[in-house]
Amino acid sequence: MSNYLLELAVIHGILALGYWFLLRKERQYGTLRMYWIVATVLAIVVPLLKLPQLVQSQQLAPQEVVSANTLTIGERDLPTYIATPKPTAKAETQTEARSDPRWVFLVLYVGVSAFFLIRMLAHLAKVVRLKRQSHIELWQGARLRRTHTVEGSFSFFGAVFLGKDLDPDQPEGQMILKHERAHAALGHTYDLLFFELFKVAFWWLPTAWLANREIRRLHEFQADAHVLKTCPLDQYSNTLIRSTLTQHGVGLVSTFHSNFIFKRLHAMKQQVTRIKPWKVGVLTSVSLILILLLAFTEERAYAQTAITADPEVEEAFTVIEEPPVSLGNLEEFWYFVDQNYPLIPTAYNSEVGGTVWIYFDVEEDGTVGEVAVSKGEDTEFETMVQELMQHMPDFRPGRQRGKSVRVSMKIELQFTNLYNDPNRGGMIRAPMEVDAQWLNVNAEFSKGVWEGTIYDKQRKPLAGVNISVPDTNIGAITDQNGRFRLEADASQMALASYV
Question: Which residue has the higher pLDDT, 317 or 18?
């Protein structure tokens, strides 16, 4: 979010400076109006474009997402950094959110935007109320709305509103009506609503206020120029001066009775000339450079995020400051298991022997989560293990920097003499420990390219794991099928991280 706001501010700010120094004194009002619209649309849209996915570096496999746990590519073991930050329990999440400065900033941001939005809606409601209270009059085939609650005149979309004292049959009234009808015909209300909404969303941006002021100024200049095609300059200027004290108190409308009278009088006397081509060239080049520069900056940031293990993530979750601690008696638990679950015969029937790892997660609330086994998947043995693990006592959850996090754990079981005689077979249980490596990879190296698939502890393809070569920009991400493709030298070591 912060990157988006920064890029929006940079684009809109630079294009606004270009307008101020190169275009502000020009008299091509329609072109200047369009410039502000295009500049604002670019500022909104460009930061949203996912250009890195369309134009990726050759060092990154396009559209690939990698997930890894314990990576063994070919005959090499790739060090793996595990990061599994998960949402904390609901109550803890709410407490942390209230103390998070970002939460305070968000509330402030939304609150100010809501204030401006309510003010905008109040102006719209006033216009709607005036429309309901007005009655229609016909003038030279045009439908006008007469209202007795405001002075002067204004236009809103295609409707022209007349105050109680304005006579459309008088020369002065006719010029004012031509001005308001020009606003309606040119669609100025659409601009006002667009830039007002832009200000509501980005009220902190100085150029948002500048854009609102300039677009209103251009609207008046444009409508004045339209009227001067059929009216004498001196007569129209006198009418404009006499209207300076007229106020109708309605926002979000286009009106003849604007505040910058002297600027309008000065602009009407200026000769309209074409904008110099070099100015157009400079602003076009600046726009393209901004887009390309931000696109490449975004690509570099994306590549680094995608292929490099985040130092904070590695520090926080590769080594847990406070590992989970059982709140119950584990010896009693295993005694209960021995009395109620025939693990050895079940392992024999499921053709499971030797070393078997039981993998499970201790959730943020201390409960036992997902359970899997390294051998005997989809067998009676796995079903029994998953069932017995539900009886394991809860844990005090692992914590990192004062926050509860999900931690992967494992228990090693050694089945001995199982294949000779299950009745004489034995089982040795190792102490429970944190599982720092739980990813599996199947990959091959050929012609400078690693290609393969990464699986989770249940041997399911895992998407979203990042693989990188340290001190380089070389990296890839596994796709939805867990596959990746990484270009690297045979002598280079790769790191994998999964968040």
Answer: 18
Looking at the predicted structure, is the pLDDT value of residue 482 above 60?
Answer: yes
Check whether residue 114 and residue 241 sit in a common domain.
yes
Amino acid at 213: R
d(CA 102, CA 86) in angstroms, rounded, equals: 18
Each residue's pLDDT tens digit, 281-333: 999 999 999 888 876 554 433 333 333 333 343 332 334 667 888 888 888 88
Do the Cβ atoms of 461 and 454 come closer than 8 Å?
yes
- Number of structural domains found in the chain: 4
In a domain, 313, yes or no: no
In 123-205, the DSSP E strands lie at 135-139, 142-146, 153-156, 159-162
CB 150 within 8 A of CB 161: yes
Tell me how far CA of residue 441 lies from CA of 373, 449, 456, in angstroms: 17, 15, 9
Beta bridge partners of 449: 446, 487
63: pLDDT strictly greater than 80: no
pLDDT tens string 414-453: 887 666 665 666 788 888 887 765 567 777 878 888 888 8
Select from 67, 80, 60 the least CA-distant residue to 481. 67
Q: Closest Cα to residue 80, out of 359, 319, 436?
A: 436
Residues 78 and 93 in one domain: no
Distance of CA 262 to the CA centre of its chain: 44
Cβ–Cβ under 8 Å, residues 289 and 296: no
CA distances, 366 to each of 35, 88, 392, 408, 436 (Å): 58, 10, 11, 12, 18
* Averaged confidence pLDDT in the chain: 78
Residues 17 and 114 in one domain: no
Residue range of the domain that includes 18: 2-33+35-47+276-306
Cα(first)–Cα(last) distance of the chain, in Å?
Answer: 20
Higher pLDDT, 203 or 404: 203
Quick one: which of 46, 54, 49, 55 has its CA closest to 10? 46
SS3 330: helix
**447 φ/ψ sector (left φ>0, alpha ψ -120 to 50, else beta):** left
How many CB atoms sit inside 10 A of residue 128's CB? Answer: 11
Query: Is there a contact between 431 and 446 (Cβ–Cβ < 8 Å)?
Result: no
H-type helices in 186-255, by residue range?
A: 188-201, 206-227, 233-242
